[in-house]
Design goal:
Strand content: 35-45%
Radius of gyration: 19 Å
Number of strands: 10
Distance between the termini: 51 Å
Number of domains: 2
CATH architecture of the largest domain: Alpha-Beta Complex
Shape: elongated
Order of helices and strands: EEEEEEEHEEEHH
Helix content: 10-25%
Structural class: alpha+beta
CATH superfamily of the largest domain: Nucleoside Triphosphate Pyrophosphohydrolase
Largest sheet: 7 strands, mixed
CATH class of the largest domain: Alpha Beta
């Protein structure tokens, strides 16, 4: 199916607000039939999410997650380590850095997928990485105003609770979706071993 007639062409853009985490832009575009409209675009660095996976001493598959206060919602949420790419970083470098800075761990990382977090507003991409073979050796370094507590969460508990209560972060739902697709290929990621 041909969709080129759906595309709008840029006429101009203007930055309305610059912040520490994003720029708010007004983009003027022309569409089918010469229609012209103004649209808000949030321009932000790419986002990175790392899904640290391990087995506990009983052989139960677990995630290493973190509890932290989120200022947007004004609530404490349970999330996978995540953050923004820094200037010049490729996504795998950002993933390694975020894993080390937030957990003090290193691991073997695999890209599970990339998406646009909300194509109606955001210009960036979000990359999801699976981390296994976790080992010490990283240096914890929280961002200014970042305070978090690491939590060991059995995989099945996270799956059961995702989307409710402390697990209500939509970005984490996306991460869990990518994890579940990987677990379809590798069922041992959800299976307890003795």
């Amino acid at each position: 199916m041909e969709n080129s007639n759906l595309e709008w062409k840029d006429i101009s853009s203007e930055t309305l607000l610059k912040t520490k985490v994003m720029d708010v832009e007004m983009v003027k575009r022309t569409g089918k039939g010469g229609h012209i409209g103004d649209f808000v675009r949030l321009k932000t660095p790419d986002w990175i999410v790392v899904i640290p996976w391990f087995r506990d001493e009983s052989g139960v598959p677990c995630f290493l997650m973190e509890d932290q206060f989120r200022h947007g919602s004004g609530t404490i949420t349970r999330e996978f380590p995540a953050g923004m790419a820094e200037d010049g970083e490729v996504d795998i470098e950002s993933a390694k850095r975020e894993l080390e800075e937030e957990t003090g761990l290193k691991g073997r990382l695999k890209l599970l997928g990339r998406v646009n977090p909300n194509s109606a507003l955001f210009s960036n991409r979000q990359s999801f990485f699976f981390a296994e073979d976790l080992r010490e050796g990283g240096t914890v370094h929280f961002d200014e105003n970042e305070d978090l507590v690491l939590v060991k969460v059995p995989v099945e508990e996270a799956i059961e609770n995702m989307g409710s209560g402390i697990y209500d972060n939509g970005v984490m739902m996306g991460a869990l979706g990518f994890f579940l697709r990987e677990a379809e290929r590798r069922p041992e990621l959800r299976r307890r071993e003795k």
